[in-house]
Amino acid sequence: MGVLIVDDSPTMRRLMREIIAAEPALRLLGEAEDGEAALTAMAGLKPDLTFLDIEMPRLDGLGVLRRWALTGPGEVLVVSSAAQPGSEVALQALRLGAAGVVAKPSGAISLDMAERRGHAVLDAARRVLGLPDAA
Fold first, then answer.
1. One biological process GO term for this chain (predicted)?
2. Per-residue pLDDT tens digits for 13-59
């Protein structure tokens, strides 16, 4: 299944690449550093799943979801420190069509993302894409 990573942090994109590499059913199609680039990449790459941050320049993740909901391909999984479970941002992302929300553990950079939340990201991705649970 093809995956797109959308996050303004190069460090976070690298950590997400490491998480994706741990799941053989997923393959990275591309990356985008802001919402405008995300919409272009989504239209061109047609990913099965997009990992989407919320707080980004030019167009934030909620803006991406509003525009993606009309014609966008695949599923969107929000991965963001701004979307803690039960928060208004998380609920709004779900109302706009996100298939799920996974919170980053320790702020926008989250150097511990792969260690602390990698399994949660992959579990959510498997659920969204209908893949079997990890053995």
1. phosphorelay signal transduction system
2. 998 999 899 899 999 999 999 999 999 999 999 999 999 999 999 99
**CB-count burial class (<10 Å; 0-12, 13-18, 19+) for 28:** middle
Question: What is the reported pLDDT for 108?
Answer: 47
**Average per-residue pLDDT for the chain:** 87
| Coil, helix or strand at residue 95 | helix
100-131 burial, b at 16+ Cβ within 10 Å, e below that, comes to bbbbbeeebebeebbeebbebbbbbbbebbee
Q: In whole angstroms, give the CA distance from residue 99 to residue 106.
A: 22
Q: For the whole model, what pTM was predicted? A: 0.86
Nearest alpha carbon to residue 12 among 98, 99, 121:
121
Report how far residue 80's alpha carbon sits from residue 101's, in angstroms, rounded to the nearest whole number.
8
CA distance 84 to 92: 12
